[in-house]
Amino acid sequence: MLELWDGLLAAGRLLISFDPDLLEIALRSLQVTGVALIVASLIALPLAALLAVRRFRLRRATIAVLNALMGLPPVVVGLVVYVILSRSGPLGVLGLLFTPTAMIIAQVIIIVPLIASVGHQSLRDLWAEYHDLLLSMNTTQRQRIMTLLWDGRRALLTAALAGFGRGIGEVGAIMIVGGNIDHVTRVMTTAIALETGKGDFALALGLGFVLIALAIMVNLAIHWLSQTERGRRW
Amino acid sequence: MVVSLFPLTTQGAMVRRRGNVLIGPVDLTLSGQGVTVVIGPNGAGKSSLLQMLYGLSRLSGGSVNWACDAREAQRRLAFVFQTPVVLRRSVLENVIYPLRIVGRPREEALALGREWCTRIGLGEATDRSATVLSRGEKQKLALARALITRPDALFLDEPCASLDGSATREIEALLQTASDEGTRLILATHDMGQARRLANDVIFLLRSKVHETGTAPAFFDGPRTAQARAFLAGDIVE
Questions:
Q1: Are A176 and A79 within 8 A, CB to CB?
Q2: Which of A47, A103, B34, B43 could connect to A174 by a Cys-Cys bridge, CB 3.0–4.6 Å?
Q3: What is the complex's ipTM, to 2 decimals?
Q4: Which of the 8 DSSP states describes residue A166?
Q5: Domain B8-86+133-232 has what CATH class?
Q6: Could you tell me which of B199, B100, B107 has the C-alpha nearest to residue B145?
Q7: Which of A127, A129, A131, A136 to mutate to test the interface with B (most CBs of B within 10 A)?
């Protein structure tokens, strides 16, 4: 209990003093997860809509695999990305290992199935509602997908925020592919892991509270910015 | 030169699903004018006939032929469903949706959309979410959305089911105007009053088949078959 209190005090101290190291790793966390979220959303959301509107032979299997991949162990993803990006790996020539780009790649792999699965659940219901109407209007598949993505944007925002939550709190994969290098690839979660390893629980908890506050602020900001329906008006 | 869609002819057209015949075989010829009302007891196949003619159901046999190319015909048709489907957008965005998907410029579509919103009594509600409208308002919106492209033919599947008298009257007025402006209406209804008010021709369905067809005065004043007579008399016909 005392350690939790110390952690809160440490978090307060870090925030009040505008600790430059904290600011740097917080910004890097936001940068890595933000870019990963954008890339993952660009892949996952059209995929979710395509799975809702298109019938093909392996559709059910694809959905089942996506659902299963939501529980993809980050450490395994980290290992696979590490092997691929390592000097002797197929993409080793790119020199991406232990860079923020490698961390973004790992996070994209982790959050794409989550965003696609959660997004698909809501778009499937919306498609059931729109199916006859859009068919009767002779819409193209692309128009159907765009309509679902636009009209389902609030539910998809929730899916994207779930992906953000998973990404910003992820440690296993980015620790492996990023290496937790100070001023290069250190982010909030890897810093917490480092301080915990050093036995500085108060600082680790302090960083943890800052991370939670950061995640909540980003969620609230996105909700506020995307709130287009006010008082039954659009 | 614009080729007429009509006559629409079907030859042995039928739709089966999981071994059950939903409609057909149907042999029909529909000319290019007026209002055709499809009537019959519940489960007779009214919705199935409309969906088959429109092309929403895949044919299991026979053929449905428009006077022009089928793809061209599809672009000049519209459908209004029994349960109005509204997009999760504003009233105005719903009304202009068909124009936007065919590539009409946004400003032009918005101007026409506002005109139609006023026409259906939703001129003050253009920015409101369509999902919060009453059922009658949603159906008027669906009708405006179908008519904004000035379709050559409009299919309506019980558009006034479970609507109150004033909403029904407003929708019938819109339909009458559309018919007067040259849109061919094919309407399924179980409301005999509505059928008598709107119909020029009648198709009477029974057990998934066309049982009797004729002009509205001839059908309502002197039906040829005993089942049609019983149906018009209010008896239970199966």
A1: yes
A2: A103
A3: 0.90
A4: H
A5: alpha beta
A6: B100
A7: A136
Does B81 contact A at CB distance below 8 Å? yes
> In 3D, which of B237, B77, B230, B121 has the Cα closest to residue A138?
B77
Q: Is A55 on the interface with B (CB under 8 A)?
A: no
Our CA-based measurement puts residue B196 at a distance from the nearest CA of chain A, in whole angstroms, of: 27
Q: Domain limits of chain A?
A: 2-226
Task: Select from A133, A138, A234 the Cβ nearest to the Cβ of B89.
Answer: A234
Can you tell me which residue has the tokens 């253009």?
A: B126
CA angle B227, B228, B232 (to 5 degrees): 115
**What's the confidence (pLDDT) of residue A19?**
82
pLDDT band at A230 (very low <50, low <70, confident <90, very high): low
Which whole number is the average pLDDT over B55-68? 93
**Taking chain A, what is the end-to-end CA distance rounded to the nearest angstrom?**
48
Contact B123, B117 (CB under 8 A): yes
Judged by DSSP in three states, B222 sits in coil
Q: Which residue has the tokens 């890897």?
A: A190
Nearest residue in A to B145, CA atom = A137
Alpha-carbon span B125 to B133, nearest angstrom: 9
Token pair belonging to B172:
């019938």
In chain B, domain spans: 8-86+133-232
How far apart are the C-alpha atoms of A177 and A92, rounded to whole Å? Answer: 12
Q: What is the pLDDT of residues A24-80, one digit of tens each?
A: 988 999 999 999 999 999 999 999 999 999 999 899 999 999 999 998 999 999 999
DSSP strand pairing (B8-17 vs B61-65): antiparallel
Q: Rounded to an integer, what distance in angstroms lies between the CA atom of residue A94 and that of residue A101?
A: 11
Cis peptide before B25 (omega within 30 of 0): yes
Top-level CATH class of A2-226?
A: mainly alpha
b vs e for A9-23, b when ≥16 Cβ sit within 10 Å of the residue's Cβ? Answer: ebbeebeeeeeeebe
For residue B16, list its beta bridge partners. B21
